[in-house]
Amino acid sequence: MTVVRKLLLACCFACSLASAATPYVLDDTEVRDVHAGALNRNYQVFVALPDSYRSSNRRYPVVFVVDANYAFPVARGIAQRLAKHAGLEEAIVVGLSYAKGDSPVYSRRRDYTPSMPRGQYVSDMPGRSAAFGEAQAYGRFIAADVFPLIAAHYRADMSRKIFVGHSYGSLLGLQVLLSEPATFDHYILGSPSLWFDQGVMFDREQAYANGHKDMPASVFFGIGGRETLPANRKRSRTEENADMVADLCDFDAALKTHRYPNLKSRLEVFADEDHASVFPLVLTHGLRAYLKKVK
Question: What InterPro entries is this protein classified in (predicted)?
């Protein structure tokens, strides 16, 4: 091989290395493995630290967001912008991932829903039956395994915990709210799938009211104005014929009728937004409803 040819090959190799694509990594983020002992499953938590974390000694409120594959980078970005440009408190953002070895659909159906729905459901994972109804157990996993992990490794103010969910993720939040409301101090619940299992969460709301005189929690509900039912369809609590705006208004009204002394709830309907587009607005307004303005 001639010297010229060797030089050409070396140049080509150097160019290929220089142009090789590398993964994009979010600044000030970490990934930690966590074992859910009671569930016998493994998850990951994604952690985003505030800009001032490395240079301060203070503790920060913590935002726990489910459906982390999508919602974690969105929540991180919005929390940072609100701190930088709207003067709100900085916060640690924790993303709760899907179970290792499960598809996102399989994991969230099982972990975020409150019951086994009536009807036939097909699993998206070959060889495994469809799974639902483990929201209560998953909520206990967050409190028993995730909270201690975050408290042990970060300067987290664990007296100020915020839950963020959307759609099925909001069903999980409602399950926690209606079983152990003090688990979180503030709930941001977007477009909850209240049609699920023929409106089972309405029954659970009434069951909670029958056994409790108070609900110590702050709740921000948000939904897109387009999440309604066309005029030519008859409303029912099924996925196909749900009026999600009307369902959420009914649920919020039911909570308010009990006049719980320590419940603060607010509902916002965002015009011209649908189920796919509304989450960033719900999150933004939900954080504004809780995080303080920094003087």
Answer: AB_hydrolase_fold (IPR029058), Esterase-like (IPR000801), Siderophore_Hydrolase_D (IPR052558)
